[in-house]
Amino acid sequence: MISDQRAPVIKDYPTLQENIYATLKGQICLLERVPGTIMSATDIAQSMALLMQRTVSRTPVREAFIQLAKEGLVELRPQFGTVVTKINRKRALEERYVRYTLEHDNLKDFMDKVNEADYEEFEEIIRKQKIANEDGKNLEYIELDNLFHHKQFYISGHVLCLDIISTYNSHYDRLRNLTTWDKGNVRKSIAQHEELIKAFRKKDLTGAQEILKIHLGKLIDEEKELYFKYPEYFLSE
To answer: What region holds the HTH gntR-type domain (predicted)?
Structure first.
C-alpha cells in the first residue's frame, strides 16, 4: 500500500527549478506518483505554489520535466502531457550493480575510520527503522535506510559516490521502495543491517562484504515477484 506521507519539498536548493525537480523526483521514486501518472505543467505549478507559498509559473516545471526525462523517470508527450515512466527492470538491476560496486569498495576505508560513537548511531537508526516498519511509516523507513547506507560514505570521506548513486538510482529506487510495501521484506533488510553492524564491530571486512552482497542482491529475487504482483508498474519485456 502506498504511504499517505508526501515527499517533502526540499527548500535549500538554489533555484526554483531544482526545488521542483527534487520534489517531483522524490514523489516519483517513492511511488507517490506511480508509473503511468499523467502530469501537466499547469497542475504541478499550482500544487507547488500551494506547497511553497509563492507564485510558480510553468517554465521551471517544464525545465524540471526535461531533467526528469533525461533520467528516464518521465516521458514528454506533446499535446498529451508528461507521463511517469514504468520501471525498467534491466536498468534497475544495472543501477543496483553500480550501487553495490561503490558500497562494496567503500567498506575498507569506512571500516578503517568508523568508531564506537558511529556504531551507536547505526544502532539507533536500526531501532527507528523497526518502529517505522511496524507503524507502516514507509517514508520514514526509507529515509532511515538511506541514512544507514549514506553514513558509511560520509565516514569514509567518499561523498562523491553519493552523487553518482543519486544520479543513477531512479529505477532501482522505485523497485527498492516497492519492496517496502511488504513488512516481511523490510524485516529481512533490517536483520541484515544488524548483521552488518556486528561485522563492522569485529572489523570483519570479508564478512561485511559478503553480507552486503546478500543485502543488495536480494532485490534480484524480489523484483521477479514484484513484476508479477504489480505488472502495471513495469515496462513489458
So the answer is: 14-87
